[in-house]
Amino acid sequence: MLFLGVxxxxxxxxxxxxxxxxxxxxxxxxxxWAAARAYETDGWSxxxxxxxxxxxxxxxxxxxxxxxxxxxxxxxxRSKCDLLSNNVSESFNQ
Length: 94
Known about the structure:
Elements: H1 12-22, H2 26-37, H3 41-54, H4 56-63, H5 87-90
């Protein structure tokens, strides 16, 4: 890790780009994004259960990624930004 003590997060848009290579179903996309946007852990848990019922392999794949890196409800509350994507920084990735 380059900066100790700095919270890291994943861009859910990029996570989904990889996820949809294997799981193209729109319902799975909607569940994944709902889990990422959840404000409370109960909502996140409910969406993850829905994903598990809908497609066990998709659930296993998403569960392998620590939720604190991609789900809003588990982000550290000290952070001043709860965005799931930062389009300003994306302009530098071209």
